[in-house]
Design brief:
CATH superfamily: Ferric-uptake regulator, C-terminal dimerisarion domain
CATH architecture: 2-Layer Sandwich
Shape: rod-shaped
Number of domains: 1
Structural class: mainly alpha
Number of strands: 2
Distance between the termini: 33 Å
Largest sheet: 2 strands, parallel
Radius of gyration: 17 Å
Oligomer: single chain
Strand order of the largest sheet: 1-2
């Protein structure tokens, strides 16, 4: 995941991604060599820094 504010990158691993890669390869008769998945958003630190002060 990549923060669009501070550009922090946090890598993660989920076995379901590999399962999807395998399934798509089989379905399309395609030898998938590698994959890339990028998720963009705003990290917790950046969200906390932009929250209005509580009265």
């Amino acid at each position: 995941v990549i923060c669009t504010e501070c550009h922090k990158v946090i890598e993660f691993c989920d076995p379901r991604i590999h399962q999807i890669q395998t399934m798509v390869g089989e379905l399309l008769n395609f030898k998938v060599l590698h994959h890339s998945l990028n998720l963009y958003g705003i990290c917790g630190d950046c969200r906390a820094n932009t929250q209005p002060a509580q009265p």
